[in-house]
Amino acid sequence: MTSKKSEPAGLALRLAAAERLRSVLNGDNFVPLGPTELADGRDRALANRLITTALRRQGQINFIIHALLDKGMPGKSGTFEAVLRLSLAQLVFLPDLGAHSALFLAVEATKRDPKARHLSGLMNAVLRRAQANSAKFGTLSDDLLIPDTFGDTWVDAYGEAAIPAFTEALLAGAPLDLTLKDNDAELIAELGATPVMADTVRIDMRDRPVEALPGYAEGRWWVQDAASAIPARLLKLEQGARVLDLCAAPGGKTAQLIKAGYAVTALDSDARRMERLRENLARLDYNAETITADAGTFGPNSLYDGVLLDAPCSATGTFRRHPEVVWHRSVADVQGRVRLQRALLTNAFRCLDAGGVLIYCVCSLEPAEGEEQVSWALDSLPGLELYPVTADEMAGLESAVDQRGLVRTHPGMAPGGQAGGMDGFFVARFRRR
Q1: Inside any domain, residue 161
Q2: What range(s) does the SAM-dependent MTase RsmB/NOP-type domain occupy (predicted)?
Q3: Does the annotation flag 251 for ligand binding?
């Protein structure tokens, strides 16, 4: 008997990475490969490193592909483009991984795909040209990393000097931020974390999955970016106040509101995401009323003292974790989100009792979804007034508060003086007269 020829080392992870990258190029959000896709932790880490490098360097890789493919990307070619991008990421931007494996495994991966195998010769030729020009391609301008769709807007909104900080944050990725259930110095030390601001701590480097970190199983913290933790802190209501958390899943802000002592109703239209919210609250031993309903049409039996609306948005502020987002979104997408946000703001206002506080926030860097929505709300919702945030409410991030008392964070900021940046977030606080 003859034994089946074993697959080349590294091919399985290359194929898995190509499939995941292909799905992202087709419009899916990036989700790191997990144990079910690649059991070996080292293979999984390498595959995710290749994917994230290809995504973070997408603008530069677009330039390289344009320079190398005279006739453009072949149509209906299966995983060809994904394999090519992974290999270019390795050849040009990850030289420590070696050039030979990039070339060999790219050709082998292409041959494994019936829709791409006829292009294996082209793959080899293109990558050899890339290898020959890797020094030149490796010095491409970081200006290519952000598409003009958003780059011009961000220059106008944040200034020319902010853009290098944005690209630096894009390439660096995001550290892991946690919100603590209790301020426990022993737990912070055990996590290897650093306090950032309020009850947020940051882990810059970790060697294990989130679920394996100290305190996870006991429900002593939850994952939440430093910027995302800001809105719920600004409600400033008395303990026991009734608060409605709209678009609440997966529940980070809901947990904050419960921790603050409010009676919380968490609402979201997505049943699966609501189930995840309930699981997260159960791990934390927190309780809230949960409702699966449309935040744009929900009508409560009685009005709330506070409403927090974390509205669906373009999510451009999350590009440190989701570098694909700036390439997936268009001006039309932003305009569509603006219309939805106005409908949700209108209903959030309807749910708010007289004298109540409304927090509106989005994880977007687009003024159209932030500052411009404030002007619209004040003009369109009679009885709604701005309740300005003051700098002393933002200790460790005073510069995020503008002259109107609106909060704007971006990835170039250093919360609490800590390196690693933060998500781009906009927060406005209103009161119903």
Answers
A1: no
A2: 155-433
A3: yes
